[in-house]
Amino acid sequence: MTSHATRSSGRKDLQDLRNLSRKPFLSYLQKQVQPSLRRSRPAVLKPAKYPLLAAFAPTHLWAWVTRYLGHRIGRRHSFPHYAQGDGDSGVYRLEGDGDEIRIALAGDWATGTDEAEDVARLIAAFKPHYSIHLGDVYYVGDAAETNENFLGIRNPHNNYEPCCWPPGSRGNFALNGNHEMYALGKAYFDRILSRMGLVIDERPQGQGASYFCLENEHWRIIALDTGYNSIGLPVIEYLLPPDCGLNAVQIDWLRGVVRPRRDDPRGIVLLTHHPCISRFDRSYRKPARQLAEFFSGPVLWFWGHEHRIAIYEEAAPARGLRAFGRCVGHGGMPVDLSPQEPPHPQYRVEFVDDRLYPNDENLTVGFNGFAQLVLQGKRLTVRYLDVFGTVVFTESWSADRGTLTRLHPPPAASGPPSF
C-alpha cells in the first residue's frame, strides 16, 4: 500500500500537529512553529524530535504571547439559542431520497492536512444528505484557521491550499469543540454557523445554535454543545479543569422543546464533541449525568476529541446515561495508537484500529477516517471508513419501541484489513 501523502498537494503536514496539547497556551505555542511554506519532500522525511523548542525563538515567543493574550483575554462569545416565535426551534425533520437517509460524521477534521482533504473527498463521494462535523478547528479556532481549515478560504499569510468542509444536500452542521473555544468561540459562532444549517434551494440557511435535533418517526439524532464549557479563566482553568457540562440553555431546550420521553419508540443517537467515557484519556462525566434525566438508555453516542476510532461496549459513568460509545475523532489529526496499558481498562472496547498508516513523513500514527450512517426505516447501519476508503468496521441497529437492538454480532473477531 502506497502513501497518499507522496503527492505535492500544497496542504499541511501531519507532523506539525503531533502531540498537540489540550491546554490553550500550549496550543497557541505550537501554532507558531508551523512553517508558512510547505516543506520539501526530503525535509518532510525528517520530522523534528522536539518541534516545540523552536517556538521559544524570540520572534515566535512574542507572537505566541500577543496572540494568546489577544484571543484569551475577554468574554467568550455569547451563547446563541433558539428564540420562541422565530420559527426555528432547532428541531428538524430528517429527509433523504426514497427510504434512505445518508449522514456523514467526522470529528477533529479541520486541520488543513492532506489526510483531511482525502477524508473530505470520501465524504463528498458518499453523497450525504447531512454532513456533521463533531468539532475542533486547529490550532485554536481563530478566524484565519476557521477560514482556511474549514471554510475553504485561502489565508493570505501562508501558501497552503485551504480545505472546505463537504456539504450535505439537505443540511450541514458543526458542533463546538474546545479548540474553537481557545479563541473564545468567536470564529465558530460568527463564521461557521452562518454557513451551516438546512439546505434550501442549494443554499444553507444558517445554523441557529451549536445544538440541534434531527428526527423522523424512527430516529432522533440529538447534537449538544460540550465545548462551550470546556474553557475557564486563563491559569485558573488549569487548577480547576472545566467539566464540559451542558449549560442551562440546552437543558431547558431539551425539557421544553425536544421533550424526550422514556417511552419514546424512536432510537436515540447523541452527538457531542467530548466523550462521556474513555479507555485512553480523560472522561467528561457531567453531560452523561445530566442526560440521564431524559433517556432510559442505552443510546448510541458519537463523539470526537480523542484522535482515534474506538468502538466501546455498553457502559456508563456513575449515575450517568448508559451508552454505546463511538469515538470518531480521527478526521484530520495525527491518529493516536493504543498504549500497551490503557489508563482506564474498565471501559472495554470491541474494536480499535491500531494499524500503522503508511505515510511519507516517517510518523508512527494510525489511519484517519470518518463514519457513514445510513437510516432505512427502523434500521441504522454505520460504516467506519479509513482515509483510503476501506471499510474497517460495520454495525447495524434496529429501533424497536425505544430499544436499540444490534442486528448482527460485532465483527471485531475478523479485525480490519491488513496491508
Could you characterize what this model shows?
The protein has 419 residues and is an alpha/beta fold. It has one domain: 4-Layer Sandwich (Purple Acid Phosphatase, chain A, domain 2), CATH 3.60.21. Helices cover 19% and strands 21% of the residues. A nine-stranded mixed sheet has the order 6-5-4-3-2-14-15-16-17, covered by helices on one side. Helix 1 (24-31) packs across helix 3. The longest helix is centred in the first third of the chain and has 15 residues, at 58-72. The relative contact order is 0.14.
Largest sheet geometry: 9 strands, mixed
Shape: globular
Mean pLDDT: 89
Unreliable spans are 412-419
Q: Summarize the amount of helix as a percent range.
A: 10-25%
- CATH architecture level-2 label: 4-Layer Sandwich
Number of domain units: 1
The structure class reads alpha/beta
Say which CATH homologous superfamily is assigned.
Metallo-dependent phosphatases
Quickly count the helices: 10
Radius of gyration: 20 Å
Report how far the terminal alpha carbons are from each other.
Answer: 6 Å
Query: CATH top level?
Result: Alpha Beta
- At CATH level 3, the topology is Purple Acid Phosphatase, chain A, domain 2
Write out the strand line-up for the largest beta sheet, numbering strands in chain order.
6-5-4-3-2-14-15-16-17
State the total count of DSSP E strands.
Answer: 17
Q: What string gives the helices and strands in order?
A: HHHEEHEHEHHEEEEHHEHEEEEEEEE
Name the beta content range.
15-25%
